[in-house]
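re: the backbone from monday

yeah here it is again, tokenized this time
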């Protein structure tokens, strides 16, 4: 049994125009002690996925179908009280903006102690204070600063305090949603290294959610690429960033600096992810994909098992034989789909 099994999960938001299908049929598993990266551009459903796992969806959000099994139990069946018990103790979350997650009227110490005492009744004040000191040292904060209020901390320190809080109860699963996005590059690097070290010590599993693929390359064993509420591709980190089969992964990978090829030009995928109230039929990436054909616009792709990867592209099997040089060429990604179509009629595929 895996620690976390997400099966065919659908999470929608009620909107004026109808339900927005933010997470639509997502499945994956996470083993104990494993780190899974979830990548994709903004608006692809990553945060919604995390919130549904920890049980903090906003009022408009609801699980429309599927299961989230944690240690074998379906979280979507649990009552609010049962879920609150799991929070912090079994599953904790480091959100993008620590300022919003920390309460401004309590000191950091008070907040961590409160979390410990709520979940481990009977823990004495001395013991919980010791845990705070230990966690502060682990994330590289001076324990003497634990009696400060959140506003007395810099952004980087708040993020570390948040991580300390998320780790205090040694949860089995940590959801890190853009844990370092608001920080400068040096701070990012330090925090990522620390999270990796800490994780080795407490043996938690982690979902690392980010739009920045270099963060995932540094911290994760496996990667799930999400596009417009669906899985585009999933597999080991080396394969995903080495030889991906989904054009979206290929494009996304080229949008970030490559440590092995620092001089390589960065590109951006023209256009934006689609609206999720009335998502396109067929492959959701088709309208931005330089290789899309009519089939892509009509028929939803199934999973193709490719070299350890699970790739939801109709043409996954043709990438290595025909399409990879084309997909790897920056020129391919340099125009919008509309401009490309006007110029050539149709490009790539068959
Ligand atoms: N409270 C909400 N009400 C309605 N739609 C929402 C709400 N929160 C997010 N969405 C929509 O759900 C989709 C996924 O958003 P999100 O999970 O935040 O993506 P990501 O974290 O990948 O940027 C987006 O289309 C977004 O507009
Ligand atoms: Mg997000």
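seq for it, each position gets an aa:
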């Amino acid at each position: 049994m895996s620690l976390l099994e997400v099966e065919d999960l659908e999470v929608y938001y009620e909107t004026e125009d109808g339900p927005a299908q933010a997470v639509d049929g997502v499945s994956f598993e996470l083993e104990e002690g494993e780190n899974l990266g979830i990548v994709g551009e903004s608006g692809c459903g990553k945060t919604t996925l995390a919130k549904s796992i920890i049980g903090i969806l906003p009022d408009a959000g609801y699980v429309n179908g599927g299961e989230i099994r944690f240690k074998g139990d379906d979280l979507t069946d649990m009552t609010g009280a049962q879920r609150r018990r799991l929070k912090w103790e079994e599953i904790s979350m480091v959100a993008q903006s620590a300022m919003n997650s920390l309460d401004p009227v309590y000191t950091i110490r008070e907040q961590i102690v409160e979390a410990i005492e709520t979940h481990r009744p009977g823990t004495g004040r001395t013991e919980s204070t010791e845990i705070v000191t230990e966690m502060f040292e682990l994330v590289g904060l001076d324990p003497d600063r634990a009696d400060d209020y959140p506003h007395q901390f810099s952004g980087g320190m708040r993020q570390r305090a948040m991580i300390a809080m998320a780790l205090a109860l040694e949860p089995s699963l940590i959801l890190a949603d853009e844990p370092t996005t608001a920080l400068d590059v040096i701070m990012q690097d330090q925090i990522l290294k620390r999270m990796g070290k800490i994780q080795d010590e407490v043996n938690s599993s982690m979902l690392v959610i980010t739009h920045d693929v270099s963060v995932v390359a540094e911290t994760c064993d496996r990667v799930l690429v999400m596009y417009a509420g669906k899985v585009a591709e999933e597999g080991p980190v080396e394969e995903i960033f080495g030889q991906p089969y989904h054009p979206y992964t290929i494009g996304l990978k080229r949008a970030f600096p490559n440590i092995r090829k620092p001089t390589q030009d960065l590109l951006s995928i023209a256009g934006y992810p689609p609206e999720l109230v009335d998502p396109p039929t067929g492959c959701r990436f088709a309208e931005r994909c330089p290789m899309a054909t009519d089939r892509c616009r009509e028929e939803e792709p199934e999973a193709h098992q490719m070299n350890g990867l699970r790739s939801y592209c109709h043409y996954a099997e043709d990438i290595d034989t025909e399409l990879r040089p084309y997909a790897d060429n920056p020129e391919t990604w340099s125009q919008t789909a509309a401009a490309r179509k006007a110029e050539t009629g149709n490009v790539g595929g068959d």
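DSSP finds 13 helices and twelve strands in the chain. Residues 185-202 form the longest helix (18 residues).
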